[in-house]
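As described in the Methods, two query proteins were run sequentially through the folding procedure within a single session, without resetting any intermediate state between them. The first query and its resulting structure tokens are shown here.
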Amino acid sequence: MTLLISRPAALTSLALAMAACHAHAEPADTVVVTATRTPQPLANVISDTVTINPEQIAQSGAGSIVDLLQRQRGIEIARNGGAGTASSVYLRGANSNQNIVLVDGVRIGSSTTGAANWSAIPLTAIDHIEIVYGPLSSLYGADAIGGVIQIFTKKGQGAPAVTAFAGYGSDNTREADATLSGATGGEHSFSYAISAAKEKSDGYSATRPGASSFNPDDDGYDRENVSGQFGFQIAPGFEAGALFLHSKLESQYDNGASAYDVRSKAELQTAAIYGKAKFVSNVDTLLQISQSEDKGQNWGGPAASDYSRIDTKQTDITLQNDIRIGEDIVQVLYDHRKEEVSTNGADAMNRERTTNSWAASYNARRGASLLNASIRRDNAVYGSKNTGSIGYGYDITPQLRATTSYGTSFRAPTYNELYYPGYGNPANKPEEGKNAEIGLRWDDGVNTLSASYYHNKLTDMLVNTKPCPYAGYKGGCAYNVNKALLEGVTIAGATKLAGINLTASLDLQDPKDETTGKRLQRRAKKHGNVTADYSIGALKTGVELEFSGDRFDDAPNQNRLGGYGLVNLYATYAFNQGWSALVRWNNIGDKQYDLARYYAPPGSKVFAGIRYGYK
């Protein structure tokens, strides 16, 4: 019995006190896709879901998608420096490789680490984001233990439109982007959106004194991207389309006092073609063929041995049928995924594997009751895994809903954990998760409040053990030895008082390695956000507070990272003719804190820009 469970009265009081707080209040007509793999009004979704809309992204002034996600409930980050450096995103305490990341329905991530390369994802290309918390392996397969984050790039609609942005800020940071989008009308309509952007910054020193790799020089980055979406309405009920994203990031990092320009290059590419058909009036069929590539190069010094290259590629073929029976939806899915790895180093890593999956789900509404259920089977070289979930929601009143759910999930062993010489072992099994949660949501059109409790039990956790228990291995290696518990309460809400919009969230959690009794690395027991904004005519001003308790940088919990609180200010002003201006000042107190030991997060930074757009 944990502290989170043993103090229900304290949590109830906190929930009431937080009734004026939420990560943000979504409009009642918001439609989300990720929670059920089909468009649904947010009001009909049982899973705890957050959306980040285009306006929030535009006014965020964030230097990267990681900065933006850090301000959302249930999310923590770790980063080895500024916007261009290696980053991890923890969802409800789950590791980066225990969450799935999608770009327009295309799965991204490295097959060697199992995690998405967050620093290579361009914020400038993003239209909106959906975050679904909880296990979703029965819908998306391996790795959806903590949840799914889906990124949507800009899509064409309406009359031809042009948007553009140019900004400048601290560390000589420059940014510019432009988008051309629109759609033709008629029976054979054509939609299009093409975006391009470039960001460049001189940066600052990513490391601090004490790090073995410390070098006081600035570590800058150069990121550029282009993306596009195209859709053609062939006939009523029949559509074909294509989409792509290409992002390239070149960034510097520290590797001691060497005068050599130590740097890395990362490329993220996604592409897909799809067809949607309605052969029968109540059946929607989707066929999509997609591919994503995660390429990395590293120059750690002047010698040839200091150069490394790791390229991973994923190819997916998905066939999905949504069958409508009255207001109910039965979904039947087949998915084929092929992963390929190519490196300039260990030959044992240069291989491929395939996963074949079958899944089915059912979503229904009966009066005040909501129900969903799903099952899935994945077959791969690491064995076959069956997962399932069931959720129920009940509208106690038109404003108040109670929800409960249970789901199983798993994480597939990565190529590193299976094949890396001296570390991996082909006998490693998937990690498994069993999650139960309950929640309450209140929304009267003015005030919102939500509270969720989750209990996610993980077994067969893959960790680095030493000495390695397998003959022929030296040092530590990956082995299914640990158990963990991801348990917590998330409280969020929003209201408007005296013209001031108030939003906030609070996470109380206990992410624990149950085998050792230690807290999981770089995760706090409490963290949250508070935002207040006020509009006077065309001027909108706001203040944000980000806070976190202490964390530990290592598994034995010996190196403590102190808690912190950050205050950010922003203002936007809308001119006539579609022009607007943004000014943002992050960390106004120049708070010194740690997201990773000996690595320096951004200090006090100012960014300003001009945006033009019309629709």
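Immediately afterward, the second query was submitted; its sequence and tokens are:
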Amino acid sequence: MTSATTITTAICALTLPFITALPASAAPVAQAPQTEATPVTASDAGSTASGDHLVGRGVADITGEVAEVGMMGYGSGSQKTSGLHMRQYARSYIIESGGERVLLVTLDALTGTNAVRDEALRRLAAEYGERWNERNVMVAGTHTHATPGGVTEYPLYNVTTMGFHPETFEAQVSGIVESVRRAEADLSPTEVALGTSTRDDAGVQRSAAAFEKNPAEIRDQLPDGHDPTSVTLTFGRGGETVGAVNWFATHPTSLTADNTLISGDNKGYAQYLWETEAGVDHRSDADPAMVASFMMSNGADVSPNLNLRPGSGPTEDEFENMRILGERQFDAARAGEAASAPLPGGVDSRIVYIDMENATAPARFTGSGHDEHTCEAALGASFGAGSVEDGGGGPAFLHEGVDNNPFFEKISETQYRNDPELERCQSPKGTLFHVGALDAVQTKLPVQLLRIGDHYIAALPGEVTGAAGVRFRSAVAEAVGVDPANVIIQQTANAYGHYFTTPEEYGEQQYEGGATLFGRWTVPTLEGTLASLGSDMASGQETPLGDKPTRRDPVDSAVGKVLYDLPGPEGYGTVLRQPTDTAVGETASAEFKGAHPNNDLHHEDTYLEVQRKEGDGWVTVADDADFSTSFRWTRHLAAQSKVTLSWTPPAGSTGEYRFIYHGDAKDGSGRITAFTGESGSFHVTG
């Protein structure tokens, strides 16, 4: 999450009504160099031994409620869904070898959550028994912020969604399960390979003051303050790549907090590019030719907004930035694919739940000369200030940086004087909100380690800075006896525990340090946990699961619910504004009398079609999963709706077209009836 504007405002409204605003500081501006992806030679990419794997791939729709639901990521109460830019999917990859198996589930969502993963595991156990379990299933989010929320049982994250949203939760869970079913059906002999490349123009360090506090040996591994490495795991059959998972360290926050359309952001566009290049249409392809996931590595402090302002860089158009940054990540992944080498057979997995409020950081990772300890979860005032570069910042009286929030720091200093252990853990954080004491966040967090051949995936339940990623790779590599380059960092996996910053970064109390819940020793604690998992894996020893959090019953939200629709005098599906002729690269649109889109989420289907005239008939050329389209909904009066369908024709689209709108209306008895609207035709010129 990159901003806490509404959460912080709500907290302060309740607890600090008499604070006066302090002057805000200006954000720095920088432009990253524009360079091409640089492939690494196959000899540098990993083992050249021949693979021996069964692999299955599966995709299913997880698009949540597209209207009136708070979005998850920026923490802005005004950012409520009002339509759909691109559909969101679960993509599953089963990898089997030597009688063992792992399952990588990637979601076009902010994060994997404990609630979603638990319910998905429960349903998978009902179908597959012990085949899929806590240890061998990873559920991770691409970290897009253009996604509906309300899918976690922890109240802090449901403030802007006004509670839990069962419909969006069910969309994610059922989509995961269906994607796994399809992956099971797709299992077949597959070559597994891995390659790397570099790309330094798809992200910029957004917290340089904190990063520069790291030791030189860590800074030297992160040119320009961020990790430029693009790692691509590929799956090949018959000489063709049929699947890929890419990891790259940049935020999918090209779309700003002002955007209210559901979308995959830049990583979603990279996925779309690779899949559409292979001719995939998820509405009709039961067995897609390509399944591509673009995930986030150790980029918690890396912004795609290259000018270090929301929606700025390389252009001033957020959707164009989404396209450009997605294309750059796609190009880097293809360069890695070209440099890939087969991985040896063999897979393995370990997982453990850690009570992060009562954990020990081993002395060999602390730098203090002895063991240290974590403590009760707390969010700092600098967290409340928000990430200026991505989220736009928080209330004017909150600021990033140590010693910049005197009111909260003064209160915390009193607490620290009375509790030296708390001071050693949380100082110099000026605490804004004691989320642990209020049981508002998950504190028993899963840490997972997966092995595929001679490479390891460290799956962490939060956002990992570049420097923390360097330390995590080193801890795993030393434990299992490989080069750190053989360790992949997967963030926002299986749960959400906010940020993980190094002790040096934590001391600077930028946004990321203020969002490091469990204090200065968080990263050393996780280093010790990963090293222990690695040692168990290397020796073949099982790892006890640890103490899982108890399942909760969150409070359902009343927002976004539809009591009934009214057609108005025009009737459902009536065209209120016809499209006009347009040119390639410009945008055509039509407005319809509609109904509330939450009546039916149209999974595996679409709210809109763009159709081209061919002979005496019409052929669909785009739908609501395409980057070139958008579906926008607005409420009219109390229970009426207006819907706007838009399409920007790509090159080569000259011809005659029309829009088709698919809606669903609910009457007073609760019965839902589908209807269709059809626009007049319009022409696209070159």
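The chain has two domains: 5-354+442-539, 575-685. We note this only descriptively and draw no conclusion about the first query from it.
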